[in-house]
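Fold it.
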Amino acid sequence: MRITAIIFLFCVPSFASAQVLINEIQISPIGERFIELYNSGNSNIDLTGWYVQRKTATGSSFGSLVTSTQLNGKTIKANSYFLVSRNQLENSDIVIDNLTLTESNIVRIRDSKGEDVDQIEWATIDERKSYQRISSGEWTVAAPTPGAINATSGSSQNQNTNVGILLPSPVISANTTFPVEPQIFADAGASARTVSSGAPIVFTGRAFGLKKEPIENARMVWSFGDGGRAEGVSVAHTYYYPGDYVVVLDVASGYYSASDRATVRVSAPLVTLSVGGDQIRSFVKLENSGVDEIDLSDWQVVGNGKNFIFPKNTILSSRKTLTLASEVTGLATPVGSVVELRFPNGSSVSVKGVEKKELPVQGTPPQKVLEESKIKPTIQIQSAQTAPLDQKATIVDAFSDTQTSLPSQKGDGMWPWYIGAAFLSAFALLGIRLTKSKEDNAFIAVDDFEIIEEVEDNEPR
């Protein structure tokens, strides 16, 4: 149900001398809240010491909305916009996570001296619509135009005309001596953007006529700064190499033409992709190791025949990780799963995978592989003491018999032992033979001796 915005302006002293104006406000959805200021003067203004306050319908006093600390060192350029947003918009100057804007609020801006510069009040504003200043004392509810010229159509609300506010207009030098020619205006979108190499980026242009009205059928030609060119209101382009590029939009309508430019910084995405968990609960983890944040809007994670598409404004900050639970993605990605990261156009993103370590099978200990297996032969040698006592053999025969009784191991390192064993056996046999000979000599009979002659001791010999 559409709710018509009811707008009230306080009857405050004229701000005709003021250059900084509250130019546009959006309150819902919450993540898309913003306040847009505009400098209608011909010189830059230092916002150091300035602050913005807010008061609710039931509140008795103003509270802080944008502090002087947050505006410290900030400058709003001549005839330019200054955007304060809750989430990171393409051309935000300040991002405040707790930016609170609701229905029936009053917002005012004060300078470094604490003096009121501008103030507005509203009752309700439709969702995804913004409250926009379109002329002195007139506002409208229309599609939001953060950081750009406001629309000139919508639910216009006439307001107190005592507030001297001028519509933003081209700057004309005071010493101009020639008549001002009518002109149209081109808007290439955010003045500075960042994108990953290989990821498509969408450019949307707008054209405004002589009275600042949108031109629906203007011809728009884009030059992307890398040799690429396209024509159309909304075009997509892919930068394949990192660098800084200048994008130029040329607009033509009838006899009139205009141009605008923007800069695009292209960086190589340094993303590490890994998986974890089990069949019951798993996850996909992305890590950005680069120095630039990555806008993952409409990027895809594909695994096991299914894919998950990142919602718009999903940001992966520099040096940060993002873990996607299976309960959210609907993907089953346990350890060992193969997943792929893709750009919005479906092309693959070059990622660095986590090293996979093979785990040993439970119950099977790792086996050591031997480069060479050496087996030493075991030889049993019969001791010489076991030989029979009546064995008759010479030393040579004993040596010969022992040597031939041993197995021949050509080239084996045991041959010194074989020879030693043979000598021991031979000496043992020799000892047995000598012992037997002595025993035979010990039993010589008396009859074996013959007395040739018996001589007495007193006889001469």
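Residues 243 and 266 are 5 Å apart (CA to CA).
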